[in-house]
């Protein structure tokens, strides 16, 4: 006679792991497909919402893109004809439907400022921002995480106070002022680094662009003088962005580490005789990295959006400077395209951080 407690597909009295093992494989597959489907729907709805918000904000701001094309002294009939050709005479829902169809084909329109397709301009500007932001986040993570760990271990001591002051200065001082002072000291006075721009003009028209990343392109071509020149231009703005992200990352690392060092498993590890270094770097930091991944991903997204002030101060031809110049010239196609790309970067990196979160924390995969 079967035990009544074991009748059915979900046995009573078993631990959750045993219950999961007792479920049919088909149900687990169906749950996995359902999770993947919900994840895909969330991505699609997020991007549609992003496109809708950027489009309607671009249409309600007091800037007429028609006047940016024909000028404010054009005859009235020319203005009306241009408005019809641009589709701006149609209702807003219809305009958005047409705009969405073009965006799905990778067409953000033509830039008034450069007369080039917006996508082509962004392909040229984005590698500059990618190179700058990538080096900046490497500096921020490479220095911010160890400093945050050190401050947490030495809580209340001189080291902790110094790290907190470094972070406070990074938060408080405007980055454009730091950029101007850095140019004055390290470029104008000391001559240690190159000035504004991405590379000297003597190399600009002789270098063959393959990836758009100057350090990589010059290294692949074996142009080491151009490589050194590009690196010299990159060091100062990347260091400022690295310092800006370092301030945030070190602060959050310190907070996460203080929480982990107060947990019971740390006391148990010390009681077992594990070394302090192993407890900190192999156990506490490993657990602190779970929430820290999101912090780093969002910091990187903030740099990739085009640090407008830094790119303006250093005349860095990146995405932030491109959007700024487009906005100043009422080039709404470029502004909407750039804003959409920035939002997509934020959404993409946020989703990536969620996936990494699940990889680092096995508990989230069991939910």
From TrEMBL:
Subcellular location as annotated: Cell membrane
Transmembrane recorded as keyword: yes
Residue intervals passing through the bilayer: 36-57, 132-153, 165-190, 202-221, 227-249, 288-314, 334-357
Matches recorded under SUPFAM superfamilies: MetI-like
Keyword annotations: Cell membrane, Membrane, Transmembrane, Transmembrane helix, Transport
The family this protein is said to belong to: Belongs to the binding-protein-dependent transport system permease family.
Protein's recorded name: ABC transporter permease
Species of the source: Verminephrobacter aporrectodeae subsp. tuberculatae
Lineage of origin: Bacteria, Pseudomonadati, Pseudomonadota, Betaproteobacteria, Burkholderiales
């Amino acid at each position: 006679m079967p035990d009544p407690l074991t009748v059915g597909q979900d046995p009573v009295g078993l631990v959750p792991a045993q219950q999961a093992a007792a479920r049919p494989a088909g149900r687990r597959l169906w749950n996995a497909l359902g999770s993947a489907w919900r994840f895909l729907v969330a991505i699609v709805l997020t991007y549609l919402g992003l496109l809708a918000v950027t489009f309607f904000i671009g249409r309600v701001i007091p800037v007429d893109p028609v006047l940016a094309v024909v000028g404010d002294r054009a005859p009235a009939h020319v203005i009306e004809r241009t408005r019809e050709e641009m589709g701006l005479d149609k209702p807003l829902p219809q305009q958005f439907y047409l705009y969405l169809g073009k965006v799905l084909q990778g067409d953000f329109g033509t830039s008034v400022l450069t007369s080039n397709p917006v996508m082509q301009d962004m392909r040229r500007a984005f590698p500059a921002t990618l190179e700058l932001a990538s080096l900046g986040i490497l500096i921020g993570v490479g220095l911010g995480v160890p400093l945050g760990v050190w401050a947490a271990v030495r809580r209340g001591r001189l080291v902790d106070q110094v790290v907190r002051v470094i972070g406070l200065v990074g938060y408080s001082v405007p980055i454009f002022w730091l950029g101007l002072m850095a140019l004055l000291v390290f470029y104008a006075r000391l001559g240690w680094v190159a000035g504004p721009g991405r590379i000297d003009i003597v190399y600009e028209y002789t270098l063959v662009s393959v990836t758009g990343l100057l350090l990589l392109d010059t290294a692949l071509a074996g142009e080491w003088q151009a490589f050194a020149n590009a690196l010299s231009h990159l060091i100062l703005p990347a260091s400022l962005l690295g310092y800006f992200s370092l301030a945030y990352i070190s602060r959050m690392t310190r907070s996460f580490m203080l929480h982990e060092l107060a947990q019971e498993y740390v006391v148990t590890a010390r009681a077992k005789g594990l070394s302090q270094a192993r407890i900190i770097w192999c156990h506490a930091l490993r657990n602190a990295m779970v929430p820290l991944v999101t912090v780093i991903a969002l910091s990187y997204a903030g740099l990739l959006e085009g640090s407008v002030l830094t790119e303006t101060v250093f005349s860095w031809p990146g995405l932030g400077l491109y959007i700024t110049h487009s906005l100043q010239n009422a080039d709404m196609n470029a502004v909407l395209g750039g804003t959409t790309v920035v939002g997509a970067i934020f959404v993409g990196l946020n989703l990536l951080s969620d996936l990494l979160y699940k990889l680092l924390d096995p508990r989230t995969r069991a939910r």
